[in-house]
Amino acid sequence: MEIIAQLGSILGLSFISGINLYATVAVTGLCTKYGLIEGLPPEFQVLGNDLVILVAIALYGLEFFMDKIPGLDTLWDSLHTFIRPLGGAMLALIQVGEATPVMEVIVFMLGASMATVAHVAKAGTRLIINTSPEPFSNILVSLLEDVGAIGFVYLTMAHPVAAFFITLLCLALIFCCMPLIFRTIRMLFGAIWFRMRCLFVREMAWTTSRHLPYALDRVFDQVREKDERILWAGRAHAVRVRGIPKFCAVHAVVTNHGVHFLFKRWFRIQRQFLPVHDIEQHKRYPGFLMGKWLLRTSRGDLLLYVYQPLFKTLPFNLTGSSELEEAMY
Description:
Layout: H1 2-17, H2 21-33, H3 50-66, H4 72-79, H5 83-96, H6 101-130, H7 136-158, H8 160-200, H9 204-208, H10 214-223, E1 230-240, E2 249-255, E3 258-265, E4 268-275, E5 279-285, E6 290-297, E7 300-307, H11 308-311, H12 321-324
Helix pairs in contact: 1-5, 1-6, 1-7, 1-8, 2-3, 2-7, 4-6, 5-6, 6-8, 7-8
């Protein structure tokens, strides 16, 4: 039980530092300095130093406000990609005190890994929330993170055994959600990179919307009809498309027969098809990095995100005969 308690303290503090490092250091320092929790390791005395506590509180105050503003919170998380893992590793090393070099290396890697997993989960979750147009969900989640971080730090020091099992549960939940988190991160960084490329190559969006990549073109040639012509092609991300994971990268191909969705799953390129006669209406909602493309059908709505420069080249009419005659190739 003593080993589990020590592991609970090491894993718990390292994990929560990946979410809010400065709150973790500040709460640990205050509890050590004022003896709010009995039986804390003597190694925590360094965190109880007045200067350490003051700096941690000041940085936490800055993070408190940065974390509430959509866009700035992502920038803040990006700047802490290396800081939080190092902080988690430092907190883990402090707790082992004078240990063998082998043990110090193991604990360092363990603490850094725990903080990294938590940091990636937090940053990815905030990216998902930032796709929402209203700012209130972002503020609410940030406040819950603040309260949760402070409460979890206290729980870890006061009840390390319970913290051990709660940390394992959190890790299991994160790994279950990790595919969605990675798809979201890939989507947003892809949108940023594409927009930067379009700044230097003005015809990038126009050219991209008229050609399919070689691998996808081979697959599409196998399923296209003889009289089927491509009107538009471009990279998108599925938000609500039946049978396609959320935020999965797809290549949408608009033809005079309908819309093809080509996407990779289980290391194979797969396809879904929406016939043109099923499309009742399609709407476009511009955005800064990505625009929303809504397809209304008799069987429900489909929603996709399209990179903003590509979004401007989308056909206005998917069913009108006048536009169907203007095939791209």
